Structure formats: C-alpha cells, structure tokens
Amino acid sequence: MRTLGVCLLLALVLLSPSTAAATKCDLQGLWRNKLGSNMTLSTLDASGTFSGSYHTAVAATNKQILVSPLQGAQQHPSAKGRPTFGFTVQWQFADSTTVFVGQCFVDHHGKERLETTWLLREEVLSPRDAWKATR
Known about the structure:
The chain is mostly beta strands and 135 residues long. It has no helices and eight strands. It has strands spanning 10-14, 29-33, 38-41, 49-55, 68-74, 84-90, 96-106, 112-122. The radius of gyration is 16 Å and the shape is elongated. The termini are close together. 21% of the residues are buried.
C-alpha cells in the first residue's frame, strides 16, 4: 500500500442507510474509504471478534490487486457507543501484512464513520533489512 505522509488517517464510511436516531456504531457491513478501498465485516461474535475482506484501491505493486481476508476484534462497546477495534489484513497479492486500529463514531445525522491508522510490514530477506520493512 502507498504511504501518505508518516501516518495515514483512513476514514471508512458505512454504505448502508442509517437514521438520525442511531447513536451506536455497528461495525458489520460494507465500508468504503475516500481512496475507493472496500471492506466487508461480518457480525461480531459474543467475544467481539469478526472476520471479513478488504479490497484495497491503492498498492505499491505491479501485481493484480486481490480481495484479501481480515480478522479483527472490537473492544466491548461502552454505553457511549463509540467502540475501539483492530484488525489484520493478510494481503493475497503481496508478501506483507497490515494492521489497522481505530474507533467508530456516529455524527449528528446518524452517519457512522471509522477513523483508523495502519502499519504495514513487508517480508525482507534478513534482519539487516528490517528497518525498511515497516511503514
């Protein structure tokens, strides 16, 4: 994935109807960011874990971009309804893995929004090259 500055703040917006009455975030569903990447998350289980898929619109590769699996967990939601979460994407087209952490918010119109940051690690041949493997 391309880096944009030191840290990318990735905003994903849920692609489903919501009402102004909604005050709590629900991670389940299809999410899309401003760069055109898509993420689909399954229902959270009782322990807060979820799975899904991520289809990135940006990558630093000449290979075909493939939909990639993800696994994650949400902190038990508080009464405030703005849970924190994290997930890992195992890229199917590159020798790298990306972890995302973030929080879900609902605006005054009931629109859910995920604010995330990410860290990508590429495979390198030796520990001497480890310094350039993480972005």
